[in-house]
Design brief:
Layout: E1 11-18, E2 21-22, E3 26-29, H1 40-44, E4 47-49, E5 52-56, E6 62-65, H2 67-80, H3 88-100, E7 112-121, E8 136-145, E9 156-161, H4 177-194, E10 198-201, E11 214-219, E12 222-225, H5 236-247, E13 251-254, H6 259-265, E14 270-275, E15 279-288, E16 291-294, H7 302-315, E17 326-328
Parallel strand pairs: 9-10, 9-15, 12-13
Antiparallel strand pairs: 1-2, 1-3, 1-8, 4-7, 5-6, 5-7, 6-17, 7-8, 11-12, 11-14, 14-15, 15-16
The structure holds pyridoxal-5'-phosphate.
The site of pyridoxal-5'-phosphate (PLP) has 14 residues, from α5 and β14.
Function: Acts on leucine, isoleucine and valine.
Enzyme class: transferase
Pfam family, one: Aminotran_4
């Protein structure tokens, strides 16, 4: 299977907002769009997106995981970017149509169909730097993905960056292109200089998250992660893991903590990243100010893997879904 995000299914769904009206969420063969060079998004980054997955369970049925949460988050992102906010029902229809159009292209477990709803500003106006786009395009593309961990789970190395920000104190909660652009420089040099897999952004010494995943610590009976304050993405995987962790008897702490505290905790902790794409990715070491620090014994944490298992067994229909997170769609 191709690398994550580089294979696409044959169909997509498109709906446009023009003259104050959304068109129906129609299925089309996947293919290029053509845009006028003055299109708002190309100049002023009026773009936001979502990432969620559909799974084919062993009985052949197709299920979405917590898609209502992705829909709410896309609407919140759209509002932050002053874009037309698509009705929740339209986004849901677009997602479901996109999945149903490609059911025979969904890989078996542990693979999944990664779904990428995207909203962009399409008004033709290079004078609208200080104004939201009047027009918009909502589209949903899908990508068959394998188990992110095929070939074995490898503990990641994170570079702790306490100088750069991946976003701003309030815009960090928006799933918008600009935030990823802002973090590229830091991530690129972390790879080149330290062979780091990701950067853990800790502006002013306060631990936040990585470029595209939330960060968590398991230490004794404590499950620790940064509290939601607008500066980090409110991950749906993060929320699911906190609920499952509490259920498994962990004390959940959504708190602010510093790099110094983190470094003190690491020797007797497990650490991992959480997100839809990587599910739960163990962290084996961090680099701070040129010095490496091992997390626990540096190996994949056993208790982290238990949490991952608790989550994937619900996503895969192998465990009772007591929170009603999964939705049968086909
Ligand atoms: C998408 C994303 C996450 C993870 O969110 P999920 O809803 O769990 O997929 C975390 N951080 C950032 C910056 C993200 O873009």
């Amino acid at each position: 299977m191709a690398e994550f995000g580089q294979a696409f299914t044959s169909q997509m769904v498109v709906s446009s907002f023009e003259n104050d009206q959304w068109s129906t969420a129609d299925v089309k063969p996947i293919g290029p769009f053509s845009f006028h060079p003055a299109t708002h998004v190309l100049h002023y980054s009026s773009t936001c997106f979502e990432g969620l997955k559909a799974y084919r369970w062993v009985d052949g049925s197709i299920h979405l995981f917590r898609h209502h949460d992705n829909i709410s988050r896309l609407r919140a992102s759209a509002a932050s970017l002053c874009l037309p906010v698509p009705p929740a029902e339209l986004i849901e229809e677009a997602i479901i149509n996109a999945v149903k159009a490609v059911t025979d292209e969904i890989p078996d477990l542990p693979g999944a169909l990664y779904i990428r709803p995207t909203l962009i500003g399409t008004e033709l106006n290079i004078g609208a730097a200080g104004r939201g786009s009047k027009n918009a395009l909502l589209y949903v593309i899908t990508s068959p993905v394998g188990d992110y961990f095929s070939g074995g789970v490898r503990p990641l190395k994170l570079l702790i960056d306490d100088e750069n920000m991946r976003s701003t104190p309030k815009f960090g909660q928006v799933k918008t292109g600009g935030n990823y652009a802002a973090s590229l420089g830091s991530v690129t040099s972390a790879r080149a200089e330290y062979q780091a897999d990701q950067v853990l952004f800790c502006p002013g010494g306060q631990v936040q998250e990585t470029g595209a995943a939330n960060f968590m610590i398991l230490r004794g009976n404590d499950l620790i992660t940064k509290k939601l304050d607008g500066s980090i993405l409110p991950g749906i995987t993060r929320n699911s893991i906190l609920k499952l962790g509490a259920d498994m008897g962990y004390q959940v702490h959504e708190i602010d903590f510093t790099v110094d505290e983190l470094l003190n905790w690491l020797p007797d902790s497990e650490a991992f990243l959480s997100g839809t794409a990587a599910v739960l990715s163990p962290v084996g070491s961090v680099v701070y100010q040129g010095v490496g620090h091992t997390v626990g014994n540096g190996e994949v944490g056993e208790r982290s893997m238990q949490l991952k298992q608790a989550l994937t067994s619900i996503q895969h229909g192998k465990q009772e879904d007591r929170w009603h997170w999964t939705s049968l769609i086909a």
